[in-house]
Amino acid sequence: MDENRPVTAHDTPTDFSLKPTLIGERVLLRPFSSDDVPAMRAVLDDPEVCKYTASAPGDLTPERLRSWYTTRDDQTDRLDLAVVDRATGRCVGEAVLHEWDAPNRSCRFRTLLGPDGRNRGFGTEACRLMVRHGFEQLGLNRIALGVYAFNPRARRAYEKVGFVSEGTEREVLLHEGEWIDATSMSILAREWATHRGHPPRRPS
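Now predict its structure.
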């Protein structure tokens, strides 16, 4: 398949065996290497990341963490890429397409960034790069995600790329004694084709 030609509805979607490098203005997404493990340890132990992923520092032992990130290239049903700050070459987080439903050409997206990757437009750009790859190279029809109500920054980033709200999942997380809702969001291939990750701004 010509990688410069977008996949159409009549193409056979591929699996996730090919691990690409996706280059943006501020970030690049590339396959993980063992050198990224310490950086991802720091990212995953960051209090804000723990809050937004409903995890705790040290949930993964050093052995499990290394095993996880050094086997991402072996996975044929998901795509895990390191988010790298192009200015420094440092890994600042990850972007993931997972839960692949091949017959229905859909999967879920998630991303997380440590302190060095936040408030710099990295999340929006990483999302845009990954979604473009999903639609134009993998032949996906739908990419979905969920975002907690206490993470409006992430929701804004997803909306900038073209994700739209599908509804509210009520009280899905108990956080510090308070029930937290989540918003289900998705973007479709036909929507992407109209704006390619730059939808018109909605009136406030």
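DSSP finds six helices and eight strands in the chain.
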